[in-house]
Amino acid sequence: YPLFQRGGPQLRIFRPNFFMLAVRPGVPQPEDTVQFRVSMEMTKVDIRNYLERIYNVPVAAVRTRIQYGANNKRNHRNQRVKKPDYKVAYVQLGQGQTFQFPNLFPEKEQDEETRSFDDFRDKYMEKEKQKQEGDPRRGGVPDWFGL
Amino acid sequence: MAALGAWRVLRPGRRWFSETVPGAPLPPGGPLYPPVVASITAKSKAAKSRRLQRFNQRVHAAATVEEKLRLYGKLQRPKYTVYPQTFALNADRWYRSFTRTVLVPGMPPRGAAAKPPVGAAGATLEAGKSQEPGAEAPAAPEAPGDAEAPGAAAGAVPSVDIGELRSLTCDALLQESFYQNKKRPFLYRDQDHTPGPFLTQLVSTLAASLSGRNPLLAASSLDLSPEVNYYWHHGEEVVVHGHRKGRVDPVRFQIDDNPHLQIRVPKQLPEVVPLESDLGDVPVIDHKPSKLPLFKKQYENKVFIGSKVADPCCYGHTQFHLLPDKLKRERFIRNRLEDQIEVVYRSNGIASLFAWTAAQAMYQGFWSEADVTRPFVSQAVVTDGKYFAFFCYQLNTLALSAETVRNNPRKNICWGTDSKPLYDVVEDGNVKGFNDEVLIQLVHFLLNRPKEL
Question: Which keywords label this protein (chain B) (predicted)?
Answer without folding.
Answer: Mitochondrion, Ribonucleoprotein, Ribosomal protein
